[in-house]
Specification:
homotetramer; 392 residues; alpha/beta; Aspartate Aminotransferase, domain 2; 2 domains; 7-stranded mixed sheet; globular
Chain lengths: 392, 392, 392, 392
């Protein structure tokens, strides 16, 4: 089960997630499992939920599933929609596409706004479609806040504004899997109805927890939605959570870890967490510029602070580069997914991460570019370093 | 998050599950999360799957979900059945009933054989119903091998034989959540089509993994089954698992733990594991007899080896007893669930457990009976001790 | 490195020490090592020292060595005495004898009061010897508070009183290796000059830390003592500790564990810790009485609360019994050491331990006695259980 | 106990030791403590000792003390020498000086060859002194292989040759605290009589274990040496170790860690371990050259592969620089010790360490130099990166 090639020293896990889990969180997960129906567990749940709401910026319920983020996508849909309902989705990249697949397999009628994987959601296009739906047949608008496959972030407040201006009653569902706890996000203020999240990115946990944060409107929708649901049903969660319990056995040890991760986030302070991610992201982009390599994200306002996708020069295979870097420097980078497979690679710079970890990662990329014979100008790491030193 | 009342020494976690997690498994879970798309992960998956099959006694595929066992129930149904299909289920206790609820919420037509919660599945009743269904409208028979709410085990080979004798084509689905890796179980030999399991009982892990073991027939059924499914869909799992990967982010750290748990099971040997559970269960029943307390399970052939449900004397509240024991002796016992709430309590004696841990637990029960004023005859612990010493 | 015979479930570590380490402490030890010259470390040291003093009941300095308790014995002597100095020691058992050996190897002149290993220190004998030393040639009286080899505790306040009444200026040195943090101990109030302790008993840590608590008088003595010392020299410790540092590299990870162990002790409260040990010890002695087995300790006032030494019936080998219990029940008991080898075995009931752990241990002893054919009356475990239930 | 300023991400522990402990080792230390007199422990000890000998390149005994390396210095001296014996020592830096202090406090007569802290041991000077001692009054030559305070390595084979050529019978004692398991070392082949080592550097453990490897000649010397010794006495260790035991309670959990660390070293292979250290050291020196900063070590043949000491430009305080780097980048660097305090800082690049960790560390130094206003030429990190990429 150990690495196929022996590597000494710490692995650099710079896929955009799972992210490097803090040793404090790993130690918390290492606690003996307890009775999920006992008083100690109840107090854990209540404490976790109250702190978790701050991360979502909501005062409403947050439901936690023993699942990956994919399950949380499914939960958002089955709780609020009925067979044949129309959902307006937007092609920001691979994960938007995968969510679309979930919706289709559940029998929803997806209205798909095509995108080029290099831009975020254009609120104007949302507005346009909604305006063309005066009868309100579109039940939900479902978009990805930070597209993990491309490093492009979308303007969620803008989407909400477009919906409001269109006067359309659709629910707004937002995937924050790779943005939550790394980039500013405001469930309540932005009028999001269902926020979808997972444990293994900014929350710095191993994978295994999926989250839905809910608005009142989403809850109301769930009362009449007729998609079949059992595991994902919010209602028994909300009921049981009131007393600190769950409708079925929760992933206890991950909850131990979540409690610790929330402590860490609160100790640093969410504002400081966001600033740190912004700083590390800017340093990374500085390296790209110096290397003369292209960011897949085109619009500066849409640059992700949690990961950066790098476009390979024509004729060079990103996966070969990634393999060289993994074998030679023991660093995992994110692959290009779907239609950009081999054409890009992704650098995760989120979660439990700091300036020197980033510099190790960027140096690994720069050395890998050289070893793999990828055309680039030297100096990316130096540029990042100069930027970071100036932020001191 | 710590216990509300301070207790020194180890907690005795004798609910029938989650069970006491071995420190070896906790340490494995404590490993840094790795890239679930990298070569080290692939080799982990392949190694886990090949060993896991031995535990199910199958050569077919085993699908592992990031979910609790409840999810694995749902997966068994949505992969094989179509809207309105009839499922024959059997009331062995609370968990059979909960599974029934899942089926109903998914839109299946449950045919329910009532039971008294004190007996296992009667194969003759299964045969009777199937015989009354010459047109084969029943798509599946779904039963619980070891009913966690009652401590009653059912004769799965007998159910299969009844189905065969009735010449009925229904699928056989079996919940082994609290029997797998504690009691002999044979997916292939007993002709089970879908075996449902979870991580937190005999597999000695924290909760967070759900399992389905599949027969060819189940796989064939899944090709035409029309219940909506996405997260639970077996097909992408089977495809991705071939190379050691998953269709969406798996619960990596629990897989580390599972690998270690399988090592532990193989080091002891499955036969030895089953003998140990049988011995600890008999010792527990010896204690009950000596206390003059009734086992909820009536038929010796159906006694569970992983837990024992104890019937409270009339007028005595099991939950009060459990509270006394928790507060005074820091031991968690299983509550009576559903219709037996307050009327029984359950002693888990499965997983990472041995003679002296059992004796600690039984002494705790005996002292608790005394402190809570529950009528009983002293000497249960002594009887168990005499039995265990004779097994030396 | 794993057990030679495979055993499932938790090992029962009932040697009187090392004791069962709480998982909280193990997790603390698992933290990444930090710079022992940095600010985080300094704050750890200062916090540990201030809490540790409460455990010794002293306001004076406590010196912590990276060593076992044996090193702390040596430190007590080399810091305070000069070549050829006389030390009055008392044969309470094997550990008193080993300490004597240390003193002799260091060139001290040991005056030895013989004992029968079944009684504690007789203050009258101390008084007698000191009275016979009007010229004050005896530099120190060195006794063991709780003799780990016999389960006999001595009256330290009584020894101090005898010294005072004799008007003798000798230093009083006390070994509390198996009593500290399990039994009431008062360095300042009892006028002890050097208290010797180790990490692996009541402090619930793995072995690797040795302690000396010091009086002013001991410090004064150290100024003129001429035994050669370097590693064990208190002076640079006291100096460096003021700012939270150490004269040479400390055992950082054990200090992480010590900090957690002190938290645990303070959460329970030292009075509650002592009561718990007293209760568990009485329960154990109740078991002995019921078994008709003899306690090596003769005087009730001298019964140890941290361990009990059991005298084997004539012609029965304690080590054979221990082997049976280890192989069959995976419990480690303490061997008879030195002149009582094979004649006694010792049950540790200290540290991270509670009623049900004790019951598991006592049941293991009772079953072992039966399996090994050791004559005894059944019912020891039952007697302990009755006693514990009454303490509810 | 947590960091005084909150830092997210991993701390960079680049003092030359304690070094970054691998998480595998931390997990091993996290195992429950076992009976140090039982069979499982014996098999652990025997396995550790046989593998440890390979690291020392010896077939003779290796003694492991629960102590820091300072204790192992003392052990080397007290086991082999008698009061007033002369010891020839060589001022390579602070640790040579500290060892001298130990010798003097133990009553030895130290003959001191002065050095400038920038060169290693000059075998010619050793030869000169020994030649001036025809009567053989010098009992031992004690030198430091790799001076941790200066990053200067000495030619131990050369020292042995000088001793041989002088035909002098003195013992050769070598401190390998910061070289063992990082740089090639050959106890037997180089004719070393006592090798001194500690756990917290190349062995990648937390501090708490001290080691002595012994030649036959050292053992013979110990038979007649009359320095007082008890804790450090080799004899009972060698005796008890034969069966896998210890004369007093060993630091069990650190032995768990040592066993794992030895596994890691053997998996990588010692030759590969040494090459890796050589590569990382050369990269570091490349950075120094590019920064136009001076290496404290003057002779290329004496450059240490485990750490590099950097001379600060006149008028700049190394400790201020280190403080800036700790506060801003959460990296601990080694301070200048003793007479070079404030004049140098030290970069540890040993143990559980790899190319990207080094790059993170060097970038941190380069950014720190800038922030602290230390004159330097940019480009050190780039130079290291270029060198490492070429080693691919």
């Amino acid at each position: 089960m150990d690495a196929l090639t022996f590597h000494e020293g710490r692995h650099f896990l710079q896929i955009p997630g799972p992210t490097n889990v803090p040793d404090r969180v790993l130690r918390a997960i290492n606690k003996p499992t307890i009775d999920h129906r006992g008083p100690e567990f109840a107090s854990l749940t209540l404490s976790v939920l109250s702190r978790l709401k701050k991360v979502f910026n909501t005062t409403g319920p947050v439901v936690m599933f023993p699942s990956s983020g994919t399950g949380a996508w499914e939960a958002a849909l089955v709780n609020t929609l009925s067979a044949g309902d129309r959902v307006l989705m937007y092609e920001t990249g691979q994960f938007a596409q995968l969510w679309r697949g979930v919706a289709e397999r559940l029998g929803l009628d997806v209205e798909w706004i095509e995108g080029d994987w290099r831009h975020g959601v254009d609120p104007a296009k949302i507005a346009e479609r909604l305006s063309a739906d005066p009868e309100g047949s579109i039940g939900a608008v479902a978009v990805v806040h930070n597209e993990t496959s491309t490093g492009v972030a979308s303007n969620i407040a803008g989407v909400r504004q477009a919906m409001n201006e269109a006067g359309h009653p659709a629910l707004l569902m937002v995937d924050t899997i790779s943005s939550l706890a790394s980039m500013d996000y405001r469930h309540d203020e932005w009028g999001v109805d269902v926020t979808v999240a997972g444990s293994q990115k900014g929350l710095m946990l191993p994978p295994g927890l999926g989250f839905n944060a809910l608005s009142d409107k989403a809850l109301q929708a769930s009362a009449s939605a007729n998609l079949r649901r059992s595991y994902w049903d919010w209602k028994p969660f909300i009921e049981a959570n009131k007393n600190g319990f769950f409708p079925y056995t929760p992933a206890t040890n991950l909850l131990f870890g979540l409690s610790e991760a929330l402590d860490i986030l609160m100790e640093e302070g969410l504002e400081a967490v966001f600033s740190r991610h912004a700083r590390l992201a800017r340093a990374t982009r500085g390296a790209l510029s110096a290397w003369r390599l292209e960011n897949l994200a085109v619009m500066p306002a849409e640059y992700s602070n949690s990961l950066t996708a790098v476009v390979m020069p024509e004729g060079h295979d990103a996966d070969k580069l990634r393999r060289v870097i993994l074998e030679r420097f023991d660093m995992s980078l994110g692959a290009g997914l779907g239609k950009v497979k081999g054409k890009i690679f992704r650098i995760g710079h989120l979660g439990h991460f700091n300036d020197l970890m980033l510099m190790g990662a960027l140096c690994g990329v720069e050395m890998g570019l050289k070893l793999a014979g990828v055309p680039h100008k030297e100096g990316g790491a130096s540029a990042a370093m100069r930027f970071l030193a100036e932020q001191g």
